[in-house]
From TrEMBL:
One of its GO terms (cellular component) is membrane. Keywords: Membrane, Transmembrane, Transmembrane helix. It comes from the Bacteria. InterPro entries: Aur1/Ipt1. This is Inositolphosphotransferase Aur1/Ipt1 domain-containing protein. The chain crosses the membrane at residues 31-47, 59-80, 124-142, 149-170, 264-284. Residues 93-279 form the Inositolphosphotransferase Aur1/Ipt1 domain. Pfam families: PAP2_3 (PF14378). The lineage of its organism: Bacteria, Pseudomonadati, Pseudomonadota, Alphaproteobacteria, Sphingomonadales.
Amino acid sequence: MASGLLLSFVVLVGLLHHAGLSIDPWSPSNLPFVGVAVTATALRLAVRRWPSRPLVIAARAGSFYAVLTAMVLMGAVASYPLAAMSHGFSDAALQHADRLLGFDWIGMYDMVAAHRSLQLLGTAAYRSIYLTPAVILGWFAWQGRNEEAYRFLATFWLAATITLVLYPMMPAVGPLSYLWHGPLPYMPESETWQQGLIPVLRAGRDTVIDLGQLRGLVSAPSFHTASAFVFIAAGWQIRPLRWAVVAVNVAMLLSTPIEGTHYLSDMILGMMVALVAIAVVGFVSAERGRERVAEQELLPSRV
């Protein structure tokens, strides 16, 4: 995990340099992220001196949350240089795929725009992408299931990495900007940042990234969709939370076309990304498990 984060950071620095972008290290908007790192470090140091059960659980949770925060932060920042280095837009192809699938984005948008209850429920469901992993990691910390926590984080990291690798091949402004013309009766959670920000980044007119004002730039593959499947796979291992995690993430998937301004084809790609990440991490974990069993079986004969 540490090696993966370090490699991600090195790649991120290279991407920022190549795209001519930078981050102001002294910006006040960086303080929440510094606070997470300081808190996690303080808990790890404190538990060495006072190894009580509550403090051990808090230290575990702090470490998990710090790793997750680092992944989310680096992934969001990486989308900026990748957007700056991308060319053209793939909205026509993505919308054509939606037509072949029979998906009517405008019809779904009209329905949501006409019902305030759907807007409130959709926004809450879409924002659950921040709550669900916190609950899952908190449960793993409480139960001392460190290996499962890091397997979940590794799957999340791999899904994010695959998403970012594919993103420059199919940048898009999203269906709200591409399909809708005229006044907007309802502004979704993701708004229309891609249409305005991506051309600015490509032109090199905005070179300093404010960590407190990061915007979602990735349309395809849909990372909300990839996250939902990763969360369901991890939550399924937690029997008391299993169906709650499934219900929340099904709701998030239903909210993603409008609140995330995604094509259905974006979401199918996001699902495929998640399935690949889950399969790869599962295979690697199983291989490592078999290796540990083999080593343990050899120990008596060595003794």
